[in-house]
Design goal:
Blueprint lengths: L1 H12 L11 E10 L9 E5 L2 E13 L4 E8 L3
Antiparallel strand pairs: 1-3, 2-3, 3-4
Length: 78
């Protein structure tokens, strides 16, 4: 599974491709919700679409070429 995720990350970020770094970046964050009765102790409560939800947030830094430059997954309450 880790090998697959690494391969996906390499493809999404365009690593290994000789391209100039973009001058403009965009920051985006989206909620990744889980069930309110989930036993996931790392999931947090925070504001998502439609009100308070339990889960995670994914934050992505996108270049003007629409490739992901960096990303981070955090609990919803951070």
């Amino acid at each position: 599974m880790i090998k697959l995720l690494t391969q996906i990350e390499v493809e999404a970020m365009g690593l290994g491709v000789d391209e100039p770094r973009p001058l403009v970046h965009y920051v985006d964050g989206k909620p990744l919700t889980v069930s309110r009765i989930s036993k996931d102790r790392y999931a947090g409560f925070g504001w998502g679409a439609g009100g308070m939800v339990k889960g995670y947030k994914i934050h992505a830094l996108l270049g003007e070429n629409r490739r992901i430059s960096a990303w981070r997954l955090t609990p919803m309450n951070t």
